[in-house]
Amino acid sequence: MKNIFLLLLTLSIISCENIKKKENMSLVNVNKEFFGKTSDGANVDQYTLKNSNGMEVSVISFGGIITSLKAKDRDGKNEDVVLGFDNLGDYENKSPYFGALIGRYGNRIKEGKFSLDGVEYKLAKNNGENHLHGGLKGFDKVIWDVEVEVNKSSASLMLRYTSVDTEEGYPGNLGVKVTYTLTNEDELKVKYEAETDKKTIVNLTQHSYFNLSAGLRKDILGHEITIDADYFLPVDMTLIPTGEIREVVQTPFDFREFKVVGDDIDLDDTQITYGNGYDHCWVLNNQDEGVRFVASAYDPLSGRLLEVFSDQPGIQFYSGNFLDGTLQSKEGGNYEFRSGFCLETQHYPNSPNQENFPSVILNPGEKYNSETIFKFSSR
Ligand code: BGC
């Protein structure tokens, strides 16, 4: 009798443990599924991270692309707030960097060239006369190795890629690791690490296009944005910074307080004309403070708030001015003019050719380390 009692007790403890485990599993978990085959036959998987609040982030091994990000509106409804495609082919052939990891150099390098220690390096001119976002086959178009880690309060994906010496014209073998972590505080943390065996340049970023209304509104002009920056970088007609660091005060670039994106976006202003809206790098405040608040976006319609924290000196606020209604969205419609915005934390564009900009040089023996956090909430 006593034995039967002990057996029953043990069984009930085991089954409680299993339920607990199951509960944990269903709270924070990662699901892996096949996403597609590249044109040269490589398999691409999609990993979906889920937290205890039901927030979800899907990432594919091609380009480390965030294909979907579901966050709660003020009524608690989790909906997809990033632009993207429903198939790999479009990511391979048509994408304006939707959701992708960008490297080795996020943003533009003038005339696709720079020098290190008297040696000139030539890169692809894939944006008119300039180099953009790492070249013809940047980090947005390579296959990353993916490892999964799940804890009680967060789920992570570790993505690794080795960019070989001279790839896309850049010097040095560069080992890169990007960790995406979804926490139960509704944060998506993006941690970048890199090491080289030869002096090189590095400027990594994440290129998600957000529409916090989850498609309720076709454009992002009603969003309100703040950027913690007293200065921005004026550009020339090809979007290369002139080298001037200009105060935002009394310009359309003053986002120190929440401002509606559409308010000044069509003003008769040379910088707005060159960007066809906002497509500029802001010089963030408090650059020596490490990871700190740098920007936020609020959609009054859904109540969603995105706050961005980063240790980077700059942020490119791009208001989707090159979207023109020709790309088919994952929901079936089309992505219209200014239907998404990017907040790309990074070093300044064309830094390798601008001595007054913070350095983007990475030497052998040094570690490139950077972190950006996207935090979602609603009000
Ligand atoms: C750039 C834009 C560019 C977009 C897509 C952004 O980071 O600032 O000028 O059109 O990326 O390529």
Trace the largest sheet across and list its strands. Answer: 11-12-13-14-29-23-22-17-20
Strand content: 35-45%
Distance N terminus to C terminus?
59 Å
Mean pLDDT: 94
How many distinct helices? 3
Q: What is the overall silhouette?
A: globular
Major sheet, described briefly?
Answer: 9 strands, antiparallel
Task: Classify the secondary structure makeup into a structural class.
Answer: mainly beta
Quick summary:
With 379 residues, the protein is mainly β. 10% of the residues lie in helices and 39% in strands.
Layout of SSEs?
Blueprint: H1 2-27, E1 29-37, E2 43-50, E3 56-60, E4 66-72, E5 78-80, H2 88-93, E6 100-102, E7 108-109, E8 113-116, E9 119-122, E10 131-132, E11 145-150, E12 154-163, E13 174-183, E14 187-196, E15 200-201, E16 205-207, E17 224-227, E18 229-233, E19 246-247, E20 259-260, H3 270-275, E21 279-284, E22 292-298, E23 304-310, E24 314-318, E25 327-328, E26 334-335, E27 342-346, E28 361-362, E29 368-378
Bound molecules: beta-D-glucopyranose (BGC).
Beta-D-glucopyranose binds near residues 107, 316, 318 and 342.
Q: What do these coordinates show?
A:
- The chain starts with a helix and ends with a strand.
- With 379 residues, the protein is mainly beta.
- The chain has three helices and 29 strands.
- 10% of the residues lie in helices and 39% in strands.
- It has helices spanning 2-27, 88-93, 270-275; strands at 29-37, 43-50, 56-60, 66-72, 78-80, 100-102, 108-109, 113-116, 119-122, 131-132, 145-150, 154-163, 174-183, 187-196, 200-201, 205-207, 224-227, 229-233, 246-247, 259-260, 279-284, 292-298, 304-310, 314-318, 327-328, 334-335, 342-346, 361-362, 368-378.
- The site of beta-D-glucopyranose (BGC) has 10 residues, from strand 24 and strand 27.
